[in-house]
């Protein structure tokens, strides 16, 4: 994506050194036919921009270890955790009773509209996090936003204000979104709006990592939010969002740089803004991820436009309208 001077200025504002990524995209793959989409997360169709060398993989793995460590450190700086941080959720067993209870609750949640969903989140007492919260953090943004951002869990400021990403990490997120012409307002052009939600709606005590049963019980809310927003692109920020949506404990560095899918919606994996605050060089990689998401959006818009032309030509051909128009 060639950058305009406006973009460069915004990147400078974000604290990014301006550089031109060598991004070349492969030709658009065929779009899945309606009904053929896999009803779960799959890694999909846009290849990495360049072949991944073993050397790169090792470096990414090291970076991921740092990412997890630094992100944990960020969260824990406010207050030390009572328990040691947990490994990846997907790698931990979840009690079968929790899975069953969550599945039952999910059925009801999937029938809720926006007001009922907000109410259900606000009054949720499905896990122990309800005991320590000041308030739930539902999510913010346009209810039909084309972009959806999924983060991890509320921190102290979010718990205080009832809105996701309002601390320093949130300011960075807003600056990154601004650079793409996006914001979190609830009104305006849905194409220029995001809806921001977390995997957990309540703050884990001491900002510790989300635990598997908490994620399991909270998940239906996020799933329903995605169903209601019907975003055209999802950005999964940080490992807990990735685990929740893609069901993998693969490190971020191995997952970023290509398109995945969640329920048929293109999904891009990127670093968590709290991690980026401490790892400035990776801001450039996060910017690349946002550019990939923008590219996927543009590509899908072109594909949809082409589909409509084909559909209207097919209708015209059936009704004879196209033939008549073409007649001299
Ligand atoms: N980090 C998150 O993942 N979500 C928030 O809302 C705040 C910080």
Describe what you observe in this structure.
The structure is a single chain. This protein is α/β, with parallel strands linked by helices. It is 48% helix and 9% strand. The protein has a seven-stranded mixed β-sheet with strand order 1-6-7-5-3-4-2, with helices on both faces. Helix 1 runs antiparallel to helix 7 and helix 3 (96-109) runs parallel beside helix 8. The longest helix has 39 residues, at 281-319. The N and C termini lie far apart (42 Å). Bound molecules: uracil. Uracil is lined by residues 151-155, 158, 164-165, 169, 198, 274. Uracil binds next to loops.
Find the count of extended strands (DSSP E, 2+ residues): 7
| Strand fraction | 5-15%
Q: Could you tell me the radius of gyration in angstroms?
A: 21 Å
Give the overall silhouette: globular
Q: From the structure provided, what is the oligomeric state, counting identical versus distinct chains? A: single chain
Query: What structural class do the secondary elements suggest?
Result: alpha/beta
Q: Mean pLDDT across all residues, rounded? A: 77
Order of adjacent strands in the largest pleated sheet: 1-6-7-5-3-4-2
Instruction: Summarize the amount of helix as a percent range.
Output: 40-55%
Bound molecules: uracil
